[in-house]
Design goal:
It contains five helices and seven strands. It has 209 residues and is of the alpha+beta class. Strands 1-7-3-4 form a four-stranded antiparallel beta sheet, with no helix packed on it. Helix 3 packs antiparallel against helix 4 and helix 3 runs antiparallel to helix 5. The protein is elongated, with a radius of gyration of 24 Å. It starts with 8 loop residues before the first helix and ends with a helix.
């Protein structure tokens, strides 16, 4: 799964109330590295990747009176195509749409559950009749994961400034209270991230039972 950053430089600056380009902390490129590292640290704390997308291809058998398919990877971001295997082995792309006009064949009914529905029942039994190409995952982290990432970057920036012997005492005095004030909130966000991650795994597991 393609990993993404859970916040931006602007998010960090807004939270901290500073502009790193003023030279009062790490450089923008250093902050970018911190953001990526912090995002992966939040994933590690949660025990799974919290956001990011990946492309998938799945094949489905059909049964008499089949009305829907359930994709294995969820939530579904988009479905590129649903194709039907003809008797000669060739693939035909089925038309997506909600119109009951005899042209549209299927639609993505529930992206969270990964349900694709057909307008009419499939009346045959066939192995690997349908080929579905789609993208699944989350395009953005939860607000708890985002805030945990922001605060981790702020705390790393504060430590960087405080440990920099070339940093003036005036700037260090700015960072000290920010480092202290984020301690409890940062831990609270991490606890929420972990609880949410465990809940999501539990719900997903129960749903697939």
């Amino acid at each position: 799964m393609t990993a993404i950053d859970y916040c931006t430089l602007a998010d960090v600056e807004t939270y901290a109330g500073i502009n790193f380009s003023d030279g009062i902390g790490p450089t923008d490129s250093e902050i970018a590295t911190m953001i990526t590292n912090a995002s992966r640290m939040v994933d590690a704390y949660a025990g799974r990747q919290l956001a990011g997308t990946e492309s998938h291809v799945e094949y489905f058998d059909s049964t008499t009176r089949l009305q829907h398919l359930v994709l294995s990877n969820r939530p579904v971001v988009s479905v590129a195509s649903v194709e039907e295997t003809k008797s000669d082995g060739s693939l035909t792309t089925l038309v997506e749409g909600r119109n009951r006009d005899g042209v549209d064949v299927w639609w993505l009914d529930d992206s969270e559950s990964g349900i694709i529905r057909f307008h009419s029942r499939i009346g045959i039994n066939a192995k690997q009749l349908f080929k579905v190409t789609y993208t699944a995952g989350r395009t953005a982290p939860t607000i708890e994961a985002k805030m945990a990432t922001i605060m981790l970057v702020v705390r790393q920036s504060a430590r960087s400034a405080l440990n920099d012997e070339n940093c003036s005492e005036r700037i260090k005095e700015m960072w000290r209270p920010l480092l202290a004030s984020t301690e409890s909130e940062y831990r609270e966000m991490l606890d929420r991230v972990k609880r949410d991650a465990l809940s999501a795994v539990s719900v997903f597991g129960n749903g697939g039972a």
